[in-house]
Amino acid sequence: MSPSHSDRPTSADYLPVMFGFALFQIGGAVSRLGIPDALGDSAKTAAELTAHTGADPDFLHRLLRAAVPAGLLTQDGQGRFALTPLGGMYRSDSPLHGAPLDAMHGAPEIWQAWGALEQCVRTGRPAFDLVHGYGLFEHMTRAPEHAEVFHAAMAAGSAVQVPAIVEGVDFTRFRQVTDVGGGNGTHLAGILRANPEVRGTVFDTPDGVLDAPRVLKEAALEDRCDVVSGSFFDAVPAGADAYLLKNILHDWDDDSCRRILGNCREGLAPGGRIIVFSSVLAEGRHDEDPGDALGAALMDIEMMTVTTGRERTRREFEELFASAGLKLAGLTPLKCPFLYYAVEAVPV
Questions:
Q1: pLDDT single digits (tens) 116-133
Q2: 46 C-beta neighbours (distance < 10 Å), count
Q3: Whole-angstrom Cα distance, residue 281 to residue 87?
Q4: H helices of 135-183, where?
Q5: How far apart are CA 274 and CA 254, in angstroms?
Q6: Greatest Cα-to-Cα distance within the chain, rounded to the nearest angstrom
Q7: Residue 155 reports pLDDT greater than 90
Q8: Name one GO biological process term (predicted).
Q9: Helix/strand/coil for 49
Q10: What span, in angstroms and rounded, lies between the C-alpha atoms of 88 and 219?
């Protein structure tokens, strides 16, 4: 029996699935051409935006026209285009930081890896490795320009997540906090600003911390925060009573995570804690916000595509901690998209 017309998916249902790649590139092209900043809070014609971007007039007009039903722009009766709230996320001053996140995902290396998702699932190997012959993090050592884009995207993510982390986690419990894989220090700077009695250390690879001194100096935190470079697979700076791992474990397979967690456990001061900031996948529940649940699921597939990692359920975190000589000590939901939590662990 064929479904009734009302049971069939509408174009609004199936176009984001069938043509999501095109919608992404429409938004990305708008962003990378600098149109959101050119528009700001104003409205401009296609001709005015052509003069700003130097793009082909006809092709630019067609892109702008497509961005209207895509929900990124509006067009008035005089042919002037303006940003919608959704399109505004690509502005350089947007609190959602859409532009650096788009730049990372729109990079050819990442785009090509997503094209190999089916082969990834069939073989059980990350798509990035299948396409390029080596992993994402090795690629960044070979292509510093892509590493710069990656770290900018990670800093943008931190800027979105830090307010929820500061609100949801009590850092006054700690004297010394080390942000493992802390990049340019954006995450830790937000925590230290909100907790003036706490000292910090940003720890990452030499490329990862390259911009951290500037970030900390601009935040007037250079006297309260050290910058240390190294590999968290070898060791972490010892003596902290809190080690933070924000969006780190989801990049790595379980064996690698055990090494990272083991090094943090070895470095902990007595009574210290490891705090993992990550999505926590639902286990058969259906009471989550659908958008957050979809975001966490997409993040899990992205980890499968570009890294050896994964998003984990509560049970999987418990098992991973146990294998590293730790136990789950707290699971705090944060007011942040994608089922984001502070997952705390302590030595057994």
A1: 999 999 999 999 999 999
A2: 20
A3: 29
A4: 136-142, 144-168
A5: 16
A6: 72
A7: no
A8: methylation
A9: helix
A10: 26
Residue 95: strand, helix, or coil: coil
Q: Of how many residues is the chain composed?
A: 348
Six-digit token string for 57:
């007039």
Burial class (CB in 10 A: 0-12, 13-18, 19+), 318: middle
Render pLDDT for 165-202 as a digit per residue (tens, 0 to 9).
Answer: 999 999 999 999 999 999 999 999 999 999 999 999 99
| Whole-number pLDDT of residue 6 | 62
Give 274's strand partners.
Answer: 243, 345
339 near 321, Cβ under 8 Å?
Answer: no
| Bridging pattern class, strands 312-313 and 340-347 | unpaired
Geometric angle at alpha carbon 329, from 331 and 255, rounded to 5°: 90
Q: Please report how many Cα atoms fall inside a 13 Å half-sphere around the Cα of residue 180, on the Cβ side.
A: 31
Angle subtended at Cα 91 by Cα 86 and Cα 97, rounded to the nearest 5 degrees? 80
AA identity, residue 209: V
Q: What count of other Cβ atoms lies within 10 Å of the Cβ of residue 245?
A: 25
Cα gap 213→26, rounded to integer Å: 36
Q: Which residues pair with 3 in a beta bridge?
A: none
**Local structure of residue 10 (DSSP, 8 states):** P
Q: Is the separation of the CB atoms in 339 and 282 below 8 Å?
A: yes
Q: Token pair of 310, please?
A: 């994964």
Quickly state the pLDDT bin for 224 (edges 50, 70, 90).
Answer: very high
State the catalytic residues: 250
DSSP symbol at 345: E
User: How far apart (Å, rounded) are the C-alpha atoms in residues 307 and 290?
Assistant: 25
Count CB-CB contacts under 10 A for residue 47. 12
User: Which amino acid is present at 172?
Assistant: T
215-240 in b/e form (b: 16+ CB < 10 A) is bbeebebbebbbbeeeebeeebbeeb
3-state secondary structure of 86: coil
Burial of residue 87, with CB atoms counted within 10 A of its CB: 0-12 exposed, 13-18 middle, 19 or more buried: buried
